[in-house]
Design brief:
There is one protein chain. The protein is an all-beta fold. It is 2% helix and 45% strand. It contains two helices and 31 strands. The strands form seven sheets. Strands 3, 4, 5, 6, 7, 8, 9, 10, 11, 12, 16, 17 and 18 form a 13-stranded mixed β-sheet that branches. A four-stranded antiparallel β-sheet has the order 19-20-21-22, with no helix packed on it. The chain starts with 13 loop residues before the first strand and ends in a 5-residue tail after the last strand.
């Protein structure tokens, strides 16, 4: 039997922010680190430095994964984008009408965001960004419907050096240094450390405590460790720009600072390095819910998308978005560098929360839920008629969703079978597993007293009472034969 692995709901929340003169897509997160000890232990070699190979505008040289918010390295500045969240109300489990029309309803919403700009006054404007410690990891960007805009196999590094930031002074980020902001100044004989001045823009207030800057921002507090060096720091002064402050910090040099030998450290081996990582999406929202692997290591990803330009492949079963939330299935090759196929699955209403498994021949089996009466089914399938009635408060026109079961052929260009699975109320297919002779086993929930059961089954009577104003749900277990009939 094929060995499979499942990962439940691999969802990423993205926020679009304007950084400098270019728009970027950043992970929505923020962090406060309260002490040097915490700063050093927050992350170590887990930071990844993603090189810009044309997937972003030219202003960005590298993006850093693993720090607080989004971190970008430009030739003249370092940007940190912080986002603060306000929790959205949890929707009651009994409010079915909202439950199936609001994906991610329990997630938080962005309440405030701020861009911090860190620059070096009087620094070399032609400083070279030199990548350090190449990783085995690579990242691919399959964004949009046009393959000309895709960027597979983008290199990833463990650090970046700003070469000759000042005469005789390099700035090194990462490369095995500890902390979420692992940076240091490396100086050589004859370097004038008095010329170094660090400028921080976009903050509301700031207190210097040794090598820590305690910063207040519109998105909450942040403790920023200053670059490691052989001297202490002092605040030179503040200025006002718009509604935020600009701080200048410089070395407080007493006597000759210790010199370094100018020899770079070698990167520590990190067994947790990613093998590959890729974005997968269009210009709107994607949520991925399940992954299955075949014997060759290809990844089959099932999710939900609002993007009309989601990157489908030529000859796929359905290359066109059908309206509102569609499910998708994408097969990514073993090294993550290409899509073997990608297809929409849906009708003109809403499809959500798919799960997936793969058999030994490479057929993909998908279950989920659909509110589309024109969801694609196949002749001879067990149930080709949408059964959902109307669910929701009085006056609602929301159709109750049916579960569905699909078998997609190995090339992703045809349905082997596709069937509805449900009664007159709502169903949801949570999980699907296929055995060695390609029977599909589906589990989920139903609120339908007329959900199809079989003679002699363990329990053929719907047991759900009334929960609030709607029926309580029963779990179900279904075995579908290899023909889906």
């Amino acid at each position: 039997m094929t060995t499979h692995r499942w990962f439940s709901r691999l969802a990423t929340i993205l926020l679009v922010a304007v950084v400098g003169m270019f728009a970027v897509v950043v992970p929505a997160t923020s962090v406060e680190i309260g002490s040097m000890q915490e700063a050093q232990s927050a992350t170590t070699d887990s930071l990844l430095f993603i090189e810009n190979m044309g997937q972003w505008p030219a202003g960005a040289g590298f993006q850093i994964w693993g720090g607080p918010g989004a971190m970008w390295l430009a030739d003249n500045a370092i940007w940190i984008t912080l986002v603060e969240y306000a929790p959205t109300p949890e929707i009651s489990n009994q409010d079915w009408s909202q439950r199936w029309t609001t994906p991610g309803h329990a997630e938080s919403a962005a309440a405030a965001g701020v861009n911090l700009k860190i620059s070096f006054v009087g620094a070399n404007r032609q400083a070279v960004l030199e990548p350090l410690a190449a990783r085995e990891t690579h990242v691919s960007y399959f964004l949009g419907a046009d393959p000309a805009g895709w960027r597979p196999d983008v290199p990833v590094y463990g650090g970046v050096r700003y070469k000759d930031l000042y005469p005789g002074v390099d700035l090194i980020l990462g490369d095995g240094q500890p902390g979420w902001m692992p940076w240091s100044l490396e100086q050589y004989a004859g370097a004038d450390m008095n010329s170094i001045r660090l400028r921080i823009e976009g903050v509301d207030n700031m207190i210097l405590d040794g090598r820590l800057l305690h910063i207040e921002t519109g998105a909450g507090p942040l403790t920023l460790p200053l670059p490691a060096a052989g001297f202490s720091y002092q605040v030179l002064g503040t200025d006002t720009e718009g509604h935020s402050l600009v701080f200048d910090v410089a070395p407080d040099v007493t006597g000759d600072p210790p010199m370094t030998d100018g020899v770079r450290r070698g990167p520590d081996d990190n067994p947790t390095d990613l093998i590959y990582s890729t974005f997968l999406g269009g210009s709107s929202t994607e949520e991925s819910y399940a992954v299955a692997l075949d014997d060759m290591g290809s990844a089959f990803v099932a999710g939900t998308t609002l993007s009309y330009d989601f990157p489908t492949t030529p000859g796929a079963f359905d290359p066109y978005h059908n309206g509102y939330w569609d499910n998708f299935v994408a097969k990514v090759n073993p090294d993550g560098s290409a899509l073997e196929y990608a297809t929409f699955l849906g009708g003109d209403n809403i499809e959500y929360y798919p799960n997936i498994d793969v058999d030994g021949a490479g057929n993909a089996y998908i279950t989920g839920r659909t509110s589309s009466s024109n969801f694609p089914t196949t002749p001879g399938a067990f149930d080709t008629t949408f059964g959902g009635g109307i669910c929701g408060p009085p006056g609602s026109t929301n159709p109750c969703p049916d579960a569905y079961v699909i078998k997609l052929n190995p090339t992703g260009n045809a349905l082997v079978y596709s069937t509805f699975l449900g009664g007159s109320n709502h169903e949801w297919g949570f999980r699907i597993v296929v055995d060695e002779v390609t029977n599909a086993f589906v589990s989920g929930e139903t609120a339908s007293s007329d959900f199809p059961t079989t003679l002699g089954a363990f329990d053929t009577t719907f047991g759900g009472g009334v929960c609030g104003s709607t029926p309580c749900t029963d779990a179900f277990v279904v075995k579908v034969d290899p023909a889906g009939s």
